[in-house]
């Protein structure tokens, strides 16, 4: 065991030394030479279009210069991305609070869920809603981390209202409430993003509870999201993959759905091959009894084998036919609205230097405010 640990440390030291001496042009030459190919599933979403390749080259040029100062750390221990200041070349011009609303653009599935008389059918639609949202999170850039007290308000075309607020700085926790206009359901929860980079890969997960409460019987469905991995951060083809298990619980009606995202191949040629061809598989149970099974791909479709509405509705989501309904920000938001942030404003105007300057200013302001709260006897260090 000691020899293994020594060899791992030596490899990390060697990688760090290479990083400190490598030139940006050398990194570009590593493209498509990633020695860690996808092992299973559908391979995730690949950023391999000509436009993506140009963006990658520009982004990696800036990212590489930034990484020179933290490279040894990254290869030896990894970096917690929620506790380090990243360059704006990695960001899109919006906050995570605004980005959240993109995940829920297939909310017509929640409307359909609220119309179901059968709680099992209702859960089928909630699962489809959660799985469909995974593809809406695919983005070349990351959103800005919200500032404590930051807010965002928007309305979807079907009248569904959404309210988001950053309720904690460390750990970073975002909270939301989404209201159906006739009061048929409320979707609420909180998300704490944990993410780290090590070597050529970023791993992260939005922890926290997602909950939909329905007015028809007062029942609630709770679930959590799977983890994700972005490969090819520094070289090679950039790929985003989800993996892990999503568990949905309707305690009042004794229903549970267990969904495996990008499941590992199982023993046995036929079983392993079948599961490898399905990026999403799962089952719906009433108590200990399986009443339905599902399959699909978070990039393309999701369907139940027996289906809802007496079997008439099986494929509940198909990206080719489903309607996307982006939220529209309210015209008269609170002063704390995330769109007012100077770093977001300047990045939207394509002024990266000014955006970077303001990003550092706002981060320093957050640290100063946190120190004042602590010195003032605050109960917590948020």
Descriptive keywords:
10 helices; globular; 17-stranded antiparallel β-sheet; single chain; 19 strands; 382 residues; alpha+beta
Describe the structure.
The chain is α+β, with helices and mostly antiparallel strands and 382 residues long. The chain is 32% helix and 31% strand. The strands form two sheets. The chain has a 17-stranded antiparallel sheet that branches. It has a two-stranded parallel sheet with strand order 3-4. Strand 8 and strand 9 (201-207) form a beta hairpin.
Quick description:
This protein is α+β, with helices and mostly antiparallel strands.
**Strand composition percent:** 25-35%
How far apart lie the N and C ends?
41 Å
Strand pairing plus helix content: what structural class?
alpha+beta
| SSE sequence, one letter per element | HHEHHEEHHHEEEEEEEEEEEHEEEEEHH
List the helices and strands and how they pair.
Elements: H1 2-21, H2 24-28, E1 45-47, H3 50-67, H4 71-76, E2 79-80, E3 91-95, H5 96-103, H6 108-114, H7 119-136, E4 142-144, E5 151-155, E6 161-168, E7 173-179, E8 185-198, E9 201-207, E10 210-214, E11 220-223, E12 227-231, E13 238-250, E14 255-261, H8 269-276, E15 280-286, E16 289-297, E17 301-308, E18 313-318, E19 328-329, H9 342-348, H10 352-375
Parallel strand pairs: 3-4
Antiparallel strand pairs: 1-13, 2-8, 5-6, 5-19, 6-7, 7-8, 8-9, 8-10, 9-12, 10-11, 12-13, 13-14, 14-15, 15-16, 16-17, 17-18
Helix pairs in contact: 6-7, 9-10
């Amino acid at each position: 065991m000691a020899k293994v640990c020594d060899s791992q440390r030596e490899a990390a030291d060697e990688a760090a030394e290479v990083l400190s001496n490598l030139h940006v042009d050398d990194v570009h030459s590593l493209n498509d030479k990633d020695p860690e190919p996808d092992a299973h599933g559908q391979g995730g979403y690949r950023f391999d279009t000509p436009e993506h390749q140009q963006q990658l080259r520009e982004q990696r040029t800036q990212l590489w210069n930034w990484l020179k100062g933290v490279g040894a750390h990254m290869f030896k221990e990894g970096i917690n991305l929620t506790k380090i200041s990243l360059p704006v070349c990695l960001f899109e011009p919006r906050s995570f609070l605004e980005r959240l609303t993109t995940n829920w653009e297939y909310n017509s599935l929640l409307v359909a869920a609220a119309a179901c008389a059968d709680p099992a059918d209702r859960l089928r639609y909630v699962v489809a809603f959660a799985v469909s949202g995974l593809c809406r999170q695919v983005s070349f850039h990351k959103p800005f981390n919200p500032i404590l007290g930051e807010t965002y308000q928007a309305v979807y075309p079907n009248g569904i209202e959404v309210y988001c607020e950053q309720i904690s700085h460390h750990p970073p926790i975002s909270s939301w409430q989404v209201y159906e206009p006739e009061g048929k359901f409320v979707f609420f929860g909180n998300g704490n993003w944990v993410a780290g980079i090590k070597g050529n890969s970023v791993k992260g997960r939005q922890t926290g509870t997602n909950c939909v409460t329905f007015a028809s019987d007062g029942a609630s469905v709770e679930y959590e999201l799977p983890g994700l991995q972005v490969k090819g951060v520094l070289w090679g083809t950039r790929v985003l993959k989800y993996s892990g298990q999503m568990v949905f619980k309707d305690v009042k009606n004794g229903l549970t759905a267990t969904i495996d995202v990008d499941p590992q191949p199982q023993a046995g040629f036929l079983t392993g091959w079948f599961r490898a061809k399905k990026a999403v598989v799962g089952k719906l149970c009433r108590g200990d009894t399986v009443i339905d099974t599902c399959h699909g791909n978070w990039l393309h479709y999701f369907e139940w084998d027996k289906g809802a509405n007496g079997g008439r509705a099986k494929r509940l989501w198909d990206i080719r036919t489903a309607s996307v309904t982006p939220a529209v920000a309210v015209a008269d938001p609170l002063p704390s609205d995330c769109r007012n942030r100077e770093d977001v404003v300047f990045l939207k105007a394509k002024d990266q230097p000014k955006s970077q300057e303001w990003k550092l200013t706002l981060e320093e302001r957050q640290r100063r405010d946190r120190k004042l709260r602590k010195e003032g006897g605050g109960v917590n260090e948020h």
